[in-house]
Amino acid sequence: MIMTDIRWFKYSSPQTFYPLAGTLAPWFSAAAALLAIAGLYISFFMAPTDFQQGEAYRIIFIHVPAAWMSMFLYLVMAVWAAIGLAWNTRLSSMMACAIAPTGAIMTFIALWTGALWGKPMWGAWWVWDARLTSELILLFLYLGFMFLHAAIDDPRRADRAAAVIAIVGAINVPIIYFSVKWWNTLHQGASVSLMRSPSMAATMLLGMLVMALAFWMYSIAVILMRVRCVIIERERHADWIKAPGALE
Amino acid sequence: MNWGSLSAFIEMGGYGGYVWGSFGVTAVCFVLEAAAVAARRRSLLRERRELD
Amino acid sequence: MSAPGLLDSVVAVVARDLRIALRRRADVMTSLIFFVIVVSLFPLGVGADPVLLRTLGPGVVWVAALLACMLALARLFANDYADGTLEQMVLAPQPLALLVLAKTAAHWLTTGLPLVIVAPLLGVQFDLDADALLILLASLLLGTPTLSLIGGIGAALTLGLRGGGALLALLVLPLYIPVLIFGAGAVEASAAALGAGAHLSLLAALLLGSLVFAPWATALALRIAIE
């Protein structure tokens, strides 16, 4: 009964969402900071040394969360963009816009840490492993979304066009992943995987989960902050935004 | 406790460059991203003040 | 006066685009010659060792086909967009996706098909044997229509944008990767006596999937561009 009294759709307009995002962002930032401290403590002081990979395996504590977030954020971005395309809701498209840079950064971090892990383990900075290759392609998909959006001057056309490429990309990600995997097995690729550690201790898993939560909270915080900027830019000429104190 | 001394912690069993290179660049990415968003907000607010 | 039937309008669009292509033969030839030149450059770059060329051959031909298809994409809607024909198509009673499919078919007949026909000749340059050439031909025949279909989405999205060419490459090339992997993989698999059946089936599956999905997405993108 109580739940139905909350008018969720109230927050679907930029005007009401702007202050809400401003209220929520510091909480998510604080949660991200606390979780990051806990996660770093687990990953450096509680998790034991891996007998096969030595201390280098500690890179998974950021590599895996970054890779998870990069894929998850792409999906969320595509869903928001699709909602914006289907129902013409401005805020959904703004959310998609705000998510893309964070997703691209997560993808970059996954690639960078993958390379730094690969050098001591595989003896090469880059191996055409199915996961790494798919991450690289995911980065191209993020860049395509951002550049297409930037190339179109009319924001509404930009939203809708970028939504189409986001949806097409989301459908293609699994196809690309499986095709690269197939190709990789055919070419006798690397058999050691970051995730396939034979002795995945419970503390390692815990560290990864806590760090993933920290990354998640950070992403939400920075996306909320960015969507506030996007709202100001897009709603520049709206009456509500000209009111004194509206930007607080 | 895994580490006997600070230098052992920094060395990471010989993988220090790789481990700290990963964690460091990740931290730099997050700090720069947050700073970029904050700068974007500041310039938008300044633009508003100039309009008023 | 009744509106022409669906099939009639498809035939009319295909015939019209083929007539235009026939009049602008230079356009068609350019992408074909681009394909031939890119493939011919590789031995000059990596050396003429026959064993090396045999392993590189399928991949090189496929990558060049990808690039040639992509270069030709800009032509898919640009002229119709400039002279207002596209606007008429969007307003036409026939489903836009169907007209898009017709345009894509005509586009493939004038850009993809010539590549497929020339490819075996280029394969000979790379010392591929008759079996490999046959598989290459089959994989290109199944794969290049998919390239045209997926490429149509990118062409529609970048319609009339500044810097459209490079943007089109960024949008479309990542989506081409599965076709490249299964296309070039088919020839390699048959060379390794693994049989190309699985690869060719997957290429056919990609073709069917994009046949259903791509014209619809392209039509959506065209409506967004026209509005």
Keywords:
heterotrimer; A: 248 residues; mainly alpha; Four Helix Bundle (Hemerythrin (Met), subunit A); 8 helices; 0% strand; B: 52 residues; 2 helices; rod-shaped
N-C termini distance of chain B: 58 Å
End-to-end separation of chain A in angstroms reads 33 Å
Determine the mean pLDDT of chain A.
85
Low-confidence region ranges of chain B:
none
Q: Which geometry of chain A do the CA atoms define?
A: globular
By oligomeric state, this entry counts as: heterotrimer
> How does the overall form of chain B come out from the CA principal axes?
rod-shaped
How would you explain this protein's 3D organization?
The complex is a heterotrimer of chains A (248), B (52) and C (227). Chain A is mainly α and 248 residues long. Chain A has a single domain (22-241), classed as Four Helix Bundle (Hemerythrin (Met), subunit A) (Up-down Bundle), CATH 1.20.120. Chain A contains 8 helices and no strands. Chain A is globular. Chain B is mostly helical and 52 residues long. Chain B has one domain (6-51). Chain B is 81% helix and 0% strand. Chain B contains 2 helices and no strands. The longest helix of chain B has 36 residues, at 16-51. Chain C is mostly helical and 227 residues long. Chain C has one domain (6-226). The mean pLDDT of chain C is 88. The chains are: A mainly alpha (248), B mainly alpha (52), C mainly alpha (227). Chains in contact: A-B, A-C. The A-B interface holds A 44-45, 48-49, 54-56, 58-59, 62-63, 66, 101-102, 105, 108-109, 112-113, 116-117, 119-120, 218, 222, 225-226, 228-229, 232-233, 247 and B 1-3, 9, 12-15, 18-19, 21-23, 25-26, 29-30, 33-34, 37-38, 40-41, 44-45, 48.
